[in-house]
Amino acid sequence: MPQVSSSTSPSGKSCRWGILGAAAIARKNWQGLRWAENSRLVAVASRSLERSREFIADCQASVPQSSPVEAMGSYDELLARPDIDAVYIPLPTGVRKEWILKAIAAGKHVLSEKPVCVDADDLREVVAAAAKAKLQFMDGVMFMHSARLEPLVAQLHNPEAMGPIRRIVSHFSFNAPASFFEDNIRASGELEPLGCLGDLGWYNIRLTLCATKGLMPHTARGRILRATSSGVPTEFSAELDFPGGTTASFFCSFHTETQQWGHFSCEKGYATLDDFVLPWYGAASRWSTHRASVVSQGCFMRMENHERFHAVDELATAGDTAQETNMFRTFSKHVLEKSPATYWPEISLKTQLVLDACLKSARADTPTPVESL
Q1: Is the pTM of this model over 0.90?
Q2: Which of 72, 195, 221, 310 is most solvent-facing, going by the fewest CB within 10 Å?
Q3: Could you tell me if 137 and 180 lie in one domain?
Q4: Whether the predicted pLDDT of 60 surpasses 80
């Protein structure tokens, strides 16, 4: 797993960025671009010049960029600019592949929102195009760039501390209002056909793959628990079986109160992470490890929870140590050093392959083999 990049830019140069689309998540990434010292936001494009200007004005009022940001009236216009090295694309999944390929054809490195594509065949096309052009491709899973992820995974695989992982369970949900299913694109079969599985389950799957150090499951069993009238999943669960006997399950939902936790059961203990997607607000990111024991004394028996808390210095948002800042810092480092890392497109494709198998299994109501890279 790549380490979080340091907060220095030895060359003094900046990767020049453009944003294609004015989605809400782009506002958080505006912040990441502001604090990454090796990154500079040059322009934002939307479906209209007015919308781009409104987006920039709102974001500048909240987190001013260090230099002016230009509004563009079309995506093609932004991609044609020679003063942009990389683009962040938060467009809907249903149209994302088209604009990723256009960006690559224009010679731009691409950071894409997730799920990257509708299926693995489309993502393979994207990954191949980026590799052929020697451009960096990465999906926008911010928690991958948290400083706590590497030490957590190291603990899970330390035979003295925890022992082999036996079971991984995760949950990511929020309780959407009724209007969400009428107005939000995440309930649209055309724009976001993967529904909660793509919007939330992508994170569950990625956390599982991080915990296994990229080991792929061989079988997936998925269930669509709730869906829209057009078949878009709005509540989903899955079970994954890995070589060696490790198992995993996850649950994602637009109908359940906000939760974002992971639980990792090992032979000598277990670890818990109750904010794996967006760290709780504060200046540190933490997790806990446990070794429970039963102590008997005469007729008395007690269960003891030998719990330890671990933390790294990391702002939850809006600062130079925040995970979204590290994401842009890491990406820009690859661009400036002209050294695209193969890890990032590979982990995206692994995630998409597991997702595809889960959805296929749910629709066929049978366990489904997970396709390999």
Answers
A1: yes
A2: 310
A3: no
A4: yes
